[in-house]
């Protein structure tokens, strides 16, 4: 799969679930939204398009390099109702105001105490405002006898996250997190992201992006990963197996803070 095709593939798989989650939760035009741990701004910009010019989305993150990517993407796409700031969950500017909705994707898994993080955001939420989060979970990472290299590559990813202190079961824990934060839960959902010979796969790309972290964590070494041939080997395995691979289990949840 070439770089352009891979990018389109990843966007379709990631953004489809996120878009449906935001829309079903009730994100509307004119909303003012806070995007937690926005990274390079994918969710922020998606939300900005949903709320329209009368709305506003503020994304914040601690990674300045990622924020620069987000700002450039907003300019390229001519999105003027998205703003990006450097901040931590526990250190938002006092004048940031309140929001109709607080959203986040793949950020709670890296919080030492996800419930505390959600609670600390609630003072910035309007009464009856929405809280919407999306997280992945290693619950779908079972061994596939027909796709052993796929299984191994996915294990490298999740084992590295776990060794870094990430919660690899945050998806299935979202219900408890919201309950303990005092939110009224409207819905929790989960979907498996499936990959086949027809869809292609992003596994090699993810392993490549995480390679320094995988090696540093001691999860695997350069020789066993063989990154230069990994994509070719994965493609061959997928074509020969004619099997479905469970690439990810994605969880989404939304709730409200009552008066």
Note down, in words, how this protein is organized.
Helix 2 links the parallel strand 1 and strand 2. The N terminus is likely disordered. The chain is globular, with a radius of gyration of 19 Å. It is an alpha/beta fold. It comes from Desulfosporosinus hippei DSM 8344. InterPro entries: Methyltranfer_dom, SAM-dependent_MTases_sf.
Percent strand equals 15-25%
Order of helices and strands: HEHEHEEHEHHEHHHE
Distance between the termini: 51 Å
Rg for CA atoms: 19 Å
Structural class: alpha/beta
Low-confidence stretches: 1-11
The profile of the biggest β sheet is: 7 strands, mixed
Query: Could you say which overall geometry the principal axes of the C-alpha atoms support?
Result: globular
Strand segment count: 7
Mean pLDDT: 92
How helix-rich are the residues, as a percent range?
A: 40-55%
Strand order of the largest sheet: 3-2-1-4-5-7-6
Number of helical runs? 9
What characteristics describe this protein?
single chain; alpha/beta; 7-stranded mixed beta sheet; 9 helices; 44% helix
Q: In brief, what are we looking at here?
A:
The protein has 259 residues and is α/β, with parallel strands linked by helices. 44% of the residues lie in helices and 23% in strands. Strands 3-2-1-4-5-7-6 form a seven-stranded mixed β-sheet, sandwiched between helices.
Secondary structure topology:
Elements (H helix, E strand, L loop, with lengths): L2 H23 L6 E5 L5 H10 L4 E6 L2 H13 L5 E5 L12 E7 L8 H8 L3 E13 L10 H16 L6 H11 L3 E12 L7 H15 L4 H4 L1 H15 L3 E12 L3
Helix pairs in contact: 1-2, 5-7, 7-9
């Amino acid at each position: 799969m070439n770089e352009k095709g891979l990018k389109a593939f990843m966007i379709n798989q990631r953004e489809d679930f996120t878009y449906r989650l935001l829309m079903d939760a009730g994100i509307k035009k004119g909303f003012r939204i806070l995007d937690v741990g926005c990274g390079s701004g994918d969710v922020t910009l998606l939300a900005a398009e949903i709320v329209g010019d009368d709305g506003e989305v503020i994304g914040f993150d601690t990674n300045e390099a990622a924020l620069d990517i987000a700002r450039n993407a907003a300019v390229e796409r001519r999105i003027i109702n998205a703003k990006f700031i450097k901040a931590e969950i526990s250190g938002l500017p006092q004048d940031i105001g309140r929001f109709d909705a607080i959203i986040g994707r793949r950020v709670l898994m890296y919080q030492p105490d996800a419930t505390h993080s959600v609670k600390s955001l609630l003072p910035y939420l309007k009464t009856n405002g929405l809280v919407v989060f999306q997280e992945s979970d290693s619950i779908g990472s079972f061994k596939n006898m027909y796709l052993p290299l796929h299984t191994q590559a996915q294990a490298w990813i999740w084992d590295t996250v776990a060794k870094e202190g990430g919660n690899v079961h945050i998806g299935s824990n979202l219900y408890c997190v919201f309950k303990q934060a005092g939110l009224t839960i409207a819905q929790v959902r989960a979907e498996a992201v499936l990959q086949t010979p027809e869809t292609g796969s992003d596994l090699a790309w993810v392993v490549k992006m995480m390679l320094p972290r995988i090696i540093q964590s001691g999860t695997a070494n350069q020789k066993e990963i063989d990154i230069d041939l990994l994509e070719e080997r994965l493609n061959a395995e997928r074509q020969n197996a004619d099997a479905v691979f469970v690439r990810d289990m994605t969880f989404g949840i939304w709730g409200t803070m009552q008066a």
